[in-house]
Amino acid sequence: MSTTLPPSPSALPEKNPAQSSWGRRLGKLVQPLVLLAPAGLWLLVLLVLPTLLILELSLIPGFRLGQSAGGYGLGNYLDIFRPGNPYLQVILRSLYFAIGSTALTLLLGFPVAYWIAVMAPARWRNLLLVGFVLPLWTSSLLRAYAWITILRPTGLLNGILGAIGLPGQDWLNRSPAVFIGMAYSFLPYMVLILYASLEKLDKRLLEAASDLGATPRQAFWKVTVPQTLPGIAAGGLLVFIASLGDFVVPELLGGASSMTISRFIFNQFLGATRNWGLGSSLSMILIFAVSVAIALLIKYGDRDAV
Amino acid sequence: MSEPTLLEEPVPQPPKAKPQGKPKLSWQMLFSVLMYGFMYFPILVLAFYSFNASRFSSNWGGFSLRWYGSLLNDSRIQGALADSLTVAITAVVISAVLGTMMAVGLAKFRFPGKGLYRGVSYLPLIIPDIAIAVATLVFLVSVAIPLSLWTITAAHIVFCLAYIAVVVSTRLAGMNPYLEEAALDLGATPLQAFIKVLLPELMPGILSGCLLAFVLSMDDLLISSFTAGGGANTLPMEIFSRVRTGVKPDINALSVILILASGVLAFASEYIRYKSTQRRLQG
């Protein structure tokens, strides 16, 4: 019975055993609760429950506020995807704007991010990056509004085009204005994420490629792009998600013919139609589309960059 | 900014040190300059026209401060600004407390369902505003809570606390984990260790998270519109209802004021970040 065990390291610092071990055990239970419960409850009550509620509403065909519900069913979803109804068009248009502005921001943002991260002097890089994303701090509403001033028929763009003898453009309230507005809104996000990815670029591989006889173009496609692919995926998906759910740009710059999901949902709730069931099902489709994009992001994207 | 580990091989210095003087003129540089122009051009246009005496803002009618003057007499704009500030400040203060506690709790403890909790805490950053707005409205209506300034604030706390928690988490991840343990070993109570050791170390993260959340709250249109009811009117709601019908010169003046204000906040945020990384590099 008297085998002497070496004292286990965890037992060593135990100064006042019985009494405080209860207190400590209680503390171990209470501390996480104190720290995590308030925020958790807030999110549960004001985010999770409401989302479950619109999931429920989306399953009540034709639900309108103040009317008795007509029982559960998939009617709203079937309506959305029924050919002949305009709703599918709205979804496709949103996808078109989102994919287009993702491609546009990638095209415009990559050279900028590359220049800041790889070519500009190292001590300027932070300043250059901050300078590029600074406009993000200003109101998205006012940034879209600024483009109205520029793009409207009697606006600055046509003033400039007219002065140099080019034909005027009528872009406002049509899709070019939406693309310009979205590219403008989301370009800083793209540059920020691509920068994070390009900053980690191993330049020795580029040197090696050029030593081995690769042209700059070959080195770019075979060395730079594969290394930054996770960043490109992350930036692309983030801009895609943001532009898919954007309300302000299509509303202010797109005009009546560019109805997107976000504006359509807005109208179902606060506009004249008041079809909450249909609006809820479109919200659920939007959430679903974004979830798919997030799943892709987690799988392929550079999670460090986001 | 991870510290170099012993496993990492020393980076061989390139034999010929390239002169790091002026950046070489390249098409990437020219293109970047063009894109900087693209980013600032609309803002400059707003500023330019805000001093335009002419109501039809495509023509230059001479320099004037009349649109700034008309803002001073615009009680709707001032009321909307007051509403926005009330919402943003209240939401940010509450979110700073809840968000910091959440970030610390997530960093400190393991518990069943932690992954789910963390996932839910990221949701406000991911779900489009319109979906959050719709869901919150449906919820408030179904539990018969009257819409007001306070329902806007409660809804703003949802995304503000998520953003603050993310920023604080990033700061926590780069922190020396032994500081707090050392304090506990030296006899501090958990609360003392939290207030005297952890909180000061987290302060730059909390502050820059608060600035970010404040700007996002001041910018929010959709969630406010859905949770305002008839009583409250925030600045974005007021601006939106004016500009959707065309160009309003007094909004140009308001834009300039707001852009300057957010510029100050952006610089403050960057300065806090810069200072705190400097301190960390020295310490």
Structural notes for this entry:
The complex is a heterodimer of chains A (306) and B (283). Chain A is mostly helical and 306 residues long. Chain A is 70% helix and 0% strand. Chain A contains 12 helices and no strands. The longest helix of chain A is centred in the N-terminal third of the chain and has 42 residues. The N terminus of chain A is likely disordered. Chain B is built from 11 helices and no strands. By secondary structure, chain B is an all-alpha fold. The two termini of chain B are 14 Å apart.
Task: Give the helix/strand layout.
The complex is a heterodimer of chains A (306) and B (283).
Chain A: H1 17-58, H2 75-81, H3 87-119, H4 125-133, H5 140-151, H6 156-163, H7 175-198, H8 203-211, H9 216-244, H10 248-254, H11 261-270, H12 276-300
Helix pairs in contact in A: 1-12, 2-12, 3-7, 3-9, 5-7, 5-10, 7-9, 7-10, 8-9, 9-12, 11-12
Chain B: H1 27-50, H2 66-72, H3 75-108, H4 114-126, H5 129-142, H6 149-173, H7 178-185, H8 190-219, H9 222-227, H10 235-243, H11 249-282
Q: Structural class from helices and strands of chain A?
A: mainly alpha
How many separate helices of chain A? 12
Biggest sheet architecture of chain A = none
Distance between the termini of chain A: 60 Å
Biggest pleated-sheet summary of chain B: none
How are helices and strands ordered from N to C of chain B?
HHHHHHHHHHH
Low-confidence stretches of chain A: 1-18
Helix tally of chain B equals 11
Helix content of chain A: over 70%
Order of helices and strands of chain A: HHHHHHHHHHHH
β-strand amount of chain A: under 5%
Compose a concise summary of this entry.
With 306 residues, chain A is mainly α. Chain A contains twelve helices and no strands. Chain A has helices at 17-58, 75-81, 87-119, 125-133, 140-151, 156-163, 175-198, 203-211, 216-244, 248-254, 261-270, 276-300.
